[in-house]
Amino acid sequence: MPFKIIASQCTGCSACETQCPNLAISERAGVFLIDPEKCTECAGYFDEPQCVAVCPVDNTCVLDAALPRHREPA
Amino acid sequence: MSTSAQNQVSCSGKISETMQVMVKHKGCGTIGGSGKASCGSQAGIANLPIEIWEKVKNHPCYSEEAHHHYARMHVAVAPACNIQCNYCNRKYDCANESRPGIVSEKLTPEQAAKKVLAVASAIPQMSVVGVAGPGDPLANPDKTFRTFELVNKLAPDIKLCLSTNGLALPDHVDTIARLKVDHVTITINMIDPEIGAKIHPWIFYGHKRYTGIEAARILSNRQLQGLEMLTARGVLCKVNSVMIPGINDQHLVEVNKAVKSRGAFLHNVMPLISSPEHGTVFGLRGQRGPTAQEVTALQDSCESEMNMMRHCRQCRADAVGLLGEDRGAEFTMEKIMAMDIKYDEQARKEYQAKVEKARTANLVAKQEALARLASASSEIKVLVAVATKGSGLINQHFGHAKEFQVYELSTSGAKYVGHRAIHSYCQGGHGEDSKLEIAIGAIKDCHAIFVSKIGGCPKAELIKAGIEPVDRYACEFIDGSVTAWFQLYLDKVNEGKINHVERVDAAVRSNALTSAA
Fold this sequence. Notes:
The structure holds two protein chains of two kinds. Chain A is α+β, with helices and mostly antiparallel strands. Chain A contains two helices and four strands. Chain B has 15 helices and 15 strands. The interface of A and B includes residues 13, 18, 46 and 48 of A.
């Protein structure tokens, strides 16, 4: 399950964009999107997903339950 | 050398002399680590190295006197932030609001540079460009520094400044110095992590989110370290603190000492802005902001330690123009794209030479008024309000003012103590009567109001409220006029023609300290 951004809650602040180690995040009309093909949940880079850690709005970067997880939860 | 350039040289030479007199008079030593300065004595800003004085004298935020004459602009190139503050919410934009973190449009560095040229061409007294968010400039280092590089290249006469929460500051000190950023403002609300945890719920640092006391400890250490590093490199630093009653209001005196000892030049204690409709944590929780009297009392208790800033308007991250008079709406990207921009540094210099001439005349008038007042001896202190559009003049109609400047008059002269916004933002449709009521309520602690013009009805209402409307100094300098009025006032008191009575406190609403413009 890669992460996804809930567009209705996203403030478009762009904080996540520069933190993503996979360059999976991009902007479309002020709202940020995560490319599920590129998202690794930050596995191999950081202990915690960077988009979640830096997002100023809680529960806005969330796991996309519709897609398989990249890694099993610890 | 052209004639105008010669004029300018001789003019600025004269100014520096006058300035020295002025700053000596103002007198509050602020050099870091030098111990408590003797306020009001000869040990004043005059003991600052001249190159530092040169840096502040045309900066509207760093010099109260300059804010009547020079304008600044913020370019909103920094949307991302690396800390969370309970008083901040960047989600909503209201065109009438003046709040840090609010912007109408985010800019790329290239758009920002274009906007700087457009504004500098239209407003020749625009002397400073800052990056102040809407997030944190140093959480967006590429955009911030690219903007500065472009401005340095295209408009080298414009000074640069930035405003940061300080978390990333130690990592960028060298770049800040290299790009000749003249001034940095660091927002420091605490030095005690226990207090910090109540203000900053989390930070994002070293690829991790920290919360609670640990987060506040890291933040505080990084802020103070960054401040020390900058002052060691000769970059002028101001510290902003948000005053939150019941959380850090008492503690800010300690913060003041800590930042002074690390070389901060100026401390700006700002009232918390919190209304439920802003959607901030504090706003939703019902945390109140301080009253005008509480802010002034805290500023006074810190002033024995260092200079306090009292003319801050807590402006938007995309504000343009003189403090208190936002012209941002004239410079949207759409309008800028349609503009024919001719950046003419020489024309700007010539215009600024005129500004300096007016400024010198203002200072001379102030000195003369002071000299006249020197013979009077009285313990009486009164507050007066002034309606002004800038240039240090009483040049605004009572009915057009969005805020009044408040001065405290005593036999030692006129001291600026703050401004009062007089209509609440985001509440259109006020009747004229209620507006007048608000305006009178906001200056109820003043003995007089100085305006360029005033209608019969408000005049009568002011007199009824015990405030003397004064329009005979229209388009004259503030300092000279208010002291001249004060002298006459003292004369009348001494001759027994009037009784001096203390005024009541102003009815200052929670948001009355923040300009609507």
